[in-house]
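Sequence only, no structure available. Ideas?
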Amino acid sequence: MGNEFGGGGRCLYLSNGGTEVFVEVLMLAVSDLAEDEWDHRFAALLSWQDQSVMGRGTVGFDLGDIDWGESPVERARSKEFVLRAITLALSRHRWDELGYQPPFAQDYLLQFRAMVESFTPADGSSSGSGFPSPEERAIASCARHRILSALPHWEGCIRCHQVSAAVS
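Reply:
I predicted one. Tokens follow.
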């Protein structure tokens, strides 16, 4: 069982372990780059991919379900944010904090970047179903790991949940 991320006519199918690595390395970058409301909404979407909370094999999203913005300028800015986050993650940003070497993470990120690059957001007609609302955006940062989290929905960030799942 695995998880699927789609968009731009492409699909990134990842095992449960691959999903954990992909979300974790991308979340490290997103947490350090997020500034605007949309960025924090995207961070919340990533935090919702936490299988320790949502269940293994039950996460994933399609780029077409994201509310990229109403205007062409907003959509371009949102897409550019995701591409900047991927680029930062590809530079192995904060990977020294992981406690392990993610051998396939760069491949996952390269595939995701190709997916985002080939994706054209709809002209403001997307309802953004499945995309966090402004009220659900990730604005809290885990003090221990410096990663945005879906507080108050869940206590802790994706790293906190991994540690507690490993102890259980």
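The helical segments are 16-33, 37-47, 51-54, 72-90, 105-118, 158-167.
Hope that gets you unstuck.
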